Amino acid sequence: MSLTCGRPVKSSESPTAATAQAAKPKPQDWLLLLSLVLIWAVSWPVIKIGVGQIPPIWYGCLRYTIAALILFGLMAVRGELALPPRSDLSLVVVSGTLQMAAYSALTGLALTILPPGRASVLAFSTPVLVAPLAVWRLGEKVSSRMAAGVMIGCAGIVIIASPSFTVGGKQAMAYAMLMGAAAAWAVTIVTVRGHRFNSSALSLAPWQMLIAAILLLPVAIFAEGSPGQFTLLGAATLAYVAPVATAFAYWAVVEAGRRFAASTMSMALLATPSFGLLISAWALNEPINASLLTGVVLTATGIRLTVTR
User: Fold this and answer.
1) Residue 165 lies in a domain
2) What are the pLDDT digits (tens) for 95-107?
3) I need a surface site. Which of 27, 124, 153, 275 has the fewest CB within 10 A?
4) Each residue of 29-41: pLDDT tens digit?
5) Which range is most confident: 148-162, 206-220, 289-303?
6) What integer pLDDT is reported at residue 24 of this predicted model?
7) Number of domains in the chain
8) pTM attached to this predicted model
9) CA 222, CA 8: separation in Å to the nearest integer?
C-alpha cells in the first residue's frame, strides 16, 4: 500500500483546498474513506496468501508494474500525463525507492513468516517513527504529548514483537523487516513534509510506481530467480492488490485528502491495522491473545498522540 502524507498544497490549489476543508463532507465522501480503510485492511491477508503463491519480491514488482500501467492510463485519459518536473524528481525517487519498493519487499518477505494482522499493526506504526525524524530533520518542536506518544507507541511495538525474543531466528528477522518498512515509509513522509511540490500527488504516482517496479525487478531475478508458474490463487490476489489496493487506493487517498481534514484522515487510516487484524482472525484463523491486544492498544494510543497537534 502507498500513502503520500503531509503533502503541502500548491498555491494554485489553495482555493480548492480551502473550499474542501470548509465544506462538510458528503455521505459519498465518508463512503470513499471507509472503502479505503477496508480495502487496505483486506489487502494484508490477501498479500499473505499471495506471497505464499508468488515469491514476495516478484509479487511487489508485479504489483507496481500493473498499478503503474493503470495510473499511466488514467492520467493519459485525463490529459494530464507528463514527465515529473525536475524540482519533483528527488521526491519521486525517494518515494518510489523507500515508500514503495523497500516497503513492499520488506513487508512481503515478513508476511511469508508472520501472520498478516500482527504484521499490519507494526507496519502501520510509521507515525511513531515520523515524530522523532521530523524533530531531527525538519526542526519540529517536541511537545509533551508527542514525546509520550513515541514512548507509548514504542512500548506497544515491543509487546507485539515480544514472541520473537524467545524464539529468535526467522521471526526476529521478520519483525526487524517490518520495522525497517515502517522506517522507510517514515523517511518518505518527512521528505514530503519538507518538499515544495510543483505537481499533484496523483500525477507523480505512476512514475513512483514505475521506479519501484524497475528497482524490484533485478532484485527479484537475483534473489528469487524465475517467478515460476502462476497459480490461479496467486493471480487472483494480484488482481485485487494491484488494481484495487494500489492503483485505486492511491487515487482514493488523494481524493479523500481533498475532502477531509488531515486529522480526520489520520484517525480513519489508524483503523486500518485494527480491521486488518480482525479480518485476518476471521479469514485465516490468526490467533489474538491478551498481549497482542495490549500491544495494539498501546501502539494505536501512541500514534494517536503523535499525530494530534
Assistant:
1) yes
2) 999 999 999 999 9
3) 27
4) 889 889 999 999 9
5) 206-220
6) 78
7) 1
8) 0.86
9) 38
Per-residue buried b or exposed e for 244-280, using 16+ beta carbons within 10 Å of the residue's own CB: bbbbbbbbbbbbbbebbeeeebbebbbbbbbbbbebb
Domain that holds residue 260: 26-79+86-307
Cell numbers for 47: 498479500
pLDDT of residue 263: 64
pLDDT at 308: 67
Cell, residue 144: 509533551
- The contacts found for 279-284 with CB under 8 angstroms, 24 or more apart, are 279/41, 279/42, 279/44, 279/45, 279/117, 280/44, 280/45, 280/48, 280/115, 280/116, 280/117, 280/120, 281/117, 283/45, 284/45, 284/48, 284/115, 284/116
Q: What's the Rg (C-alpha) of the chain?
A: 19
User: Is 231 domain-assigned?
Assistant: yes
Between the CA of residue 22 and those of 14, 196, 258, 260, 309, what are the distances in Å? Answer: 12, 23, 11, 9, 19
| pLDDT confidence band for 16 (50 / 70 / 90) | very low
Scanning the structure block, which residue is given the C-alpha cell 515480544?
A: 162
Q: What CA–CA distance (Å, rounded) separates 257 from 9? A: 11
Q: Which of 58, 41, 141 is nearest to 105 (CA)?
A: 58
Q: How far apart are CA 72 and CA 203, in angstroms?
A: 9
* Residue 170 within any structural domain of the chain: yes
Q: How far apart are CA 300 and CA 139, in angstroms?
A: 25
Residue carrying C-alpha cell 513534509:
193
Nearest to 277 by CA among 4, 35, 37: 37
**pLDDT of res. 237:** 97
DSSP tally for the chain: helices H, then strands E: 15, 0
Residue 242 placed within a domain = yes
pLDDT exceeds 90 at position 220: yes
pLDDT-wise least confident of 19-23, 87-91, 119-123, 260-264: 19-23
